[in-house]
Every structure is written in structure tokens, then in C-alpha cells.
Amino acid sequence: MDYNFIQKFHSGWAYLALLLLVVAVVNSLIGMTSKKEFTAKDRKIALFGLIATHIQLVVGLILYFVSPLGKASLGNMKDAALRLTSLEHPLINIIAIVLITVGWSRHKKLATSEAKFKSITVFYGLGLVLILARIPWKLWL
């Protein structure tokens, strides 16, 4: 695969993944605060956020291992921009996606709608904050 295609796909898919993640967090927050019943629609919204972030992770890992930037920057951790793209962005985003996955897995084991919404709100919300904190904004926008 072409490096430029993978990079553009990773950047483009990020918009969709972030949008679906925001929708999942807002939907769960509204469900939790309004004490509504957790429905199949709520489950699907959270599932789409989970799937989109996992696709983003897989594409990001492929990009990381084929990127000339990743290999060149490993010996130069004093450069903040290189450190962000080669270490901080991948590591923090893996942690974020683990949190999102924990939120999804945890909600399936919970009995009440309020607990399900809370699990998704908290874990997806933490994952979203971590992702937003480590996006290389100068490269992306």
C-alpha cells in the first residue's frame, strides 16, 4: 500500500471516528441524566463509536510501521513535534482505545440502563479527551 494513501485515510477517517465518539458520549450523557431506558439504538451508537476507533487504531498502526517519520524520529525524542507523532500520539491513543473498549465491555455486564449509560459516558469520554489531547493538530488542520 502507498504511504500517502494510508496517511490520508488515517487523517480522513479520524473525522468520522471523532464524530461517532462524540455522538456516543453525548447520547450516553443525555441517557444517563434523563434516566431513559438503554435501547438497541443506544447500543448501536456506542458500537459504531467503538468500531470506528478500532479501525482508526489498525490504520494508525499500519501507518506507524510504514512511515518514514516513525523510523527517523525514534532517535530524536528531544524534538517535540517528532516525539508527538512517534511516541505520544500512538501511545496515548492506544490507552484511549483500551478505555473505550473497557467501557463497551463493562456496559454489557451491567443490569441497569443508568449504569450502562454511565459506563459508556465515563470510559468513552475519557478516551475522547485523551485522543483530543494527542492529535497532532498542526499536521492535521
From TrEMBL:
Biological source species: Flavobacterium aquatile LMG 4008 = ATCC 11947
Q: Which domain of life is it from?
A: Bacteria
Q: What is this protein called?
A: 50S ribosomal protein L27
Q: Which UniProt keywords apply?
A: Membrane, Transmembrane, Transmembrane helix
**TM helices/strands, residue ranges:** 12-33, 45-67, 87-105, 117-137
